[in-house]
Amino acid sequence: MMIPQYTVALIFMTAIQGLQTIGLHCIELVVNATRDEDLWRRAAAPFPRKKFIFLSSQTKGGLPHKLNPLSSALESLPYLYLFTLKAVLHWSLGQSVLPRWSPEGITFHMTHGHIFVYLVLACSPTVFTQYLCVKRPRGPQPATWGHLQTLADLIDDWGDGTGEGRLYWGDKGDGGRRDGVRHAGTIGREEAVGRIKQGVLYE
Fold first, then answer.
1. What is the 3-state secondary structure (H, E, C) of the chain?
2. Residues 105-163: pLDDT tens digits?
3. pTM of the model as a whole
4. Which of 125, 146, 177, 185 is positioned for an S-S bond with 156, CB 3.0–4.6 A?
5. What is the rounded distance in angstroms from the CA atom of residue 168 to the CA atom of residue 187?
């Protein structure tokens, strides 16, 4: 029993689109981890942080306890790039491989120009993802990449609820210790922490 040509065409196009979707989903995992790390780094001193230009010129310092998912997504340039890329890649692939029905059967029309454009678009997320993977966070703040257990280990004080609902990370002093070891941690008040001192031991 022979498989109908339209079934073969459907399987072929589904396989191509499916592989592309899986690849884009893997890139999204990297973008989400990068966005989580950028949000965590808002808690570090010095606290003023600039927002995406379309939303606001500047925000208050610290990491808010409650974040609007939409605004946090719009503040992330990697997320906006990936969001646009998903639509463009699927559209470009659809223009590159066009199944057509005729009395003789189903044929696939592939034009060199469309395939070249798709190739360029498909290579751009590779370079983009590689950049995100090798980019190192700046500053002395430990990286967490959204790992909940690491965040739980680093956040030692969520605040007493009387502040602005924000979290601040930085130097919390030596606590009266004589060995020179200082403490870095979080607190709910901006004035209670300062910048990390270079060349000093922390716990």
1. CCCCHHHHHHHHHHHHHHHHHHHHHHHHHHHHHHHHHHHHHHHECCCCECCCCCCCCCECCCEECCCCHHHHHHCCHHHHHHHHHHHHHHHHHHHHEEEEEECCEEEEEECHHHHHHHHHHHHHHHHHHHHHHHCCCCCCCCCCCCCHHHHHHHCCCCCCCCCCCEEEEEECCCCCCCCCCECEEEECCHHHCECCCCCCCEC
2. 677 777 788 889 888 988 898 899 999 988 888 878 888 888 888 887 778 777 655 55
3. 0.76
4. 185
5. 5
Question: In this structure, what token pair is assigned to residue 65?
Answer: 């306890």
Place of tokens 């592939």: 110
